[in-house]
Amino acid sequence: MCTSILYNAGDHYFGRNLDLEVSFGQEVVVTPRNYQFNFRRVPSMGHHYAIIGMALVKDNYPLYFDGANEEGLGMAGLNFDGPAHYFPLEEGKDNVSPFELIPYILGQCKNVAEARELLKKLNLVNINFSDQLQLSPLHWLIADRSGKSIVVESTVTGLHVYDNPVNVLTNNPEFPGQLTNLANYQGISPTTPPNQLAPDVNLAAYSRGLGSHMLPGGMDSASRFVKEVFTLHHAPTGKNELENVTNYFHCLHAVEQQEGLDEVVPGKFEATIYSDGINLSTGTFYYTTYQNNQINAVQLHHTDLNRQELALFPLQTEQVLHFQN
C-alpha cells in the first residue's frame, strides 16, 4: 500500500511513501537523456528527457517506482490490487506494458497536458518484465509544475484519466470512490468546533484538536486518503526550500506505516520502506527510509545528463544521530 502527493508551496514537491513488507533493493536512479529505452511493443527511445527517481535496476533497465523528469513532470505507480486490469495487444494503439509506463510518459512529456494527450492512444498490455518479475497491479498519479495532477487507472472498463483536485492518491477503491468518500468528513477541521449537539448546554472542550476527533487513522488506504487530504490541504507554506521540504515530509510521514501494525501474512508486517519527494522546479530528489529518517538528497543537474549509462545512488539506510555533547 502507498500514498502519493503533490505539495504546492512556492515550488511544487511530488513524491510518495512506499509501504511494503519486503524491500526490492531499490536505489535513486538517474536515467540520462541518451540512455536507450527499449520497449516491448512500441519504438525504442534513444534520446529523451532525463529522469530521476526511485527504481530497481534489473538487467540494466530501471524499473521506476516513481520519479520526475528534467521538465518537472512527476509520476508514481501505486498498488491497485483488484480493480487493476491490463489488456491484450490492440492494433492501432500504443501498446505499453505497465512496467514501461513511467519512462514512456516521463521520457517524452513536459507536463500533465502532454501526458493526457499521449494517454489517449495508450493500451496497457499484459506483458511481464520476465518470468521472475511479473506485473504488479498499479494505478498512477501524474503531476507537474502547474500544481495540478491526474490519476490514471486501467480497469476492465478501459483506461481512465481523472483530474485530481486534492493532489493525493492511495490505493483502493477506484479514484472516483475515494473522492466520494471525502464527503463523509467535510466537518473535519483544525479548529475547535462549535457546540451544535446541544447548544443550550455548556460542554467543556476537554482537549485541543477536537475538530479532528473523527479523522480516520487506520493503515487502510481509504483512511490514509482522508487523513492525507486533511493534512496536505492544511499544511503551511514555508519561507524557503528547507522549510518546504520539512513540511512536505511531515505530510507524508503523517500517514507512514510503522512495523507491527499491518500484518499482511502471519508474522510479516507492511511498513513505509521509504518516503521521497522531488522539487519539480530544481530537480532535487529527497528521501528518507524506515531505518534512517534523516532527509537525504540527490541533485539531478549535478549528474551528466548527456551520458548513456545510468547513474546509481544507493540508499543511505543507517540512522544518523547528532550528538550535542
From TrEMBL:
<keyword id="KW-0443">Lipid metabolism</keyword>
<dbReference type="InterPro" id="IPR052193">
    <property type="entry name" value="Peptidase_C59"/>
</dbReference>
<comment type="pathway">
    <text>Lipid metabolism; bile acid biosynthesis.</text>
</comment>
<dbReference type="InterPro" id="IPR029132">
    <property type="entry name" value="CBAH/NAAA_C"/>
</dbReference>
<protein>
    <recommendedName>
        <fullName>choloylglycine hydrolase</fullName>
        <ecNumber>3.5.1.24</ecNumber>
    </recommendedName>
</protein>
<feature type="domain" description="Choloylglycine hydrolase/NAAA C-terminal">
    <location>
        <begin position="2"/>
        <end position="311"/>
    </location>
</feature>
<dbReference type="InterPro" id="IPR047711">
    <property type="entry name" value="CBAH"/>
</dbReference>
<comment type="similarity">
    <text>Belongs to the peptidase C59 family.</text>
</comment>
<dbReference type="GO" id="GO:0045302">
    <property type="term" value="F:choloylglycine hydrolase activity"/>
</dbReference>
<dbReference type="GO" id="GO:0006629">
    <property type="term" value="P:lipid metabolic process"/>
</dbReference>
<dbReference type="Pfam" id="PF02275">
    <property type="entry name" value="CBAH"/>
</dbReference>
<dbReference type="InterPro" id="IPR029055">
    <property type="entry name" value="Ntn_hydrolases_N"/>
</dbReference>
<keyword id="KW-0378">Hydrolase</keyword>
